[in-house]
Amino acid sequence: MRQAQGDHMNKGRVRSTIRMLIPLDKQSEALDILGSVSAQIQFEPSCISSRIYRGVDEVRAIMVEELWANEEDILRHVKSDAYRWVLLVIEMAEEPPEIRFDTIAGSSGVEIIEKARKQA
Fold it and tell me: CA-CA-CA-CA torsion for 3, 90, 102, 78, nearest 10 degrees?
């Protein structure tokens, strides 16, 4: 996966997160589908990252996090055949999922920790 290279590279990026509660008897199928979509979209040049997380505190929780180069690219993805599979998994959820699309104006990394520790 490609890593962000400093604040100036992050202008206009969009992070998509979907957190859903999937019944335990459907988790294997859901993870297979999401894993397939994630593997497929990681080869798209505008997809910066695609990750799937499982809950620790809530065993039914599955979260999908994607980072896209810009809004145009994520809109294209949401209209794609691959995203229809994500929507199918959302339909498996026991309750309405948490869905967010966040535009990232900038981000920092370990340098914030270093700066805070120097000021302490």
Answer: 80
Strand 98-104 with 13-21, pairing:
antiparallel
Give the global pTM: 0.82
Q: Which residue has the higher pLDDT, 52 or 7?
A: 52
The closest of 20, 44, 27 to 100, measured between CA atoms, is 20
In angstroms, the CA 91 to CA 84 distance is 11
The structural architecture, per CATH, of the domain 7-119 is 2-Layer Sandwich (3.30)
How many Cα atoms are found within 13 Å in the side-chain-facing hemisphere of 92? Answer: 24
The whole-angstrom distance between residue 99's C-alpha and the CA centroid of its chain comes to 10
CA angle, 18 then 19 then 24, to 5°: 130
Q: How far apart are CA 102 and CA 120, in angstroms?
A: 31
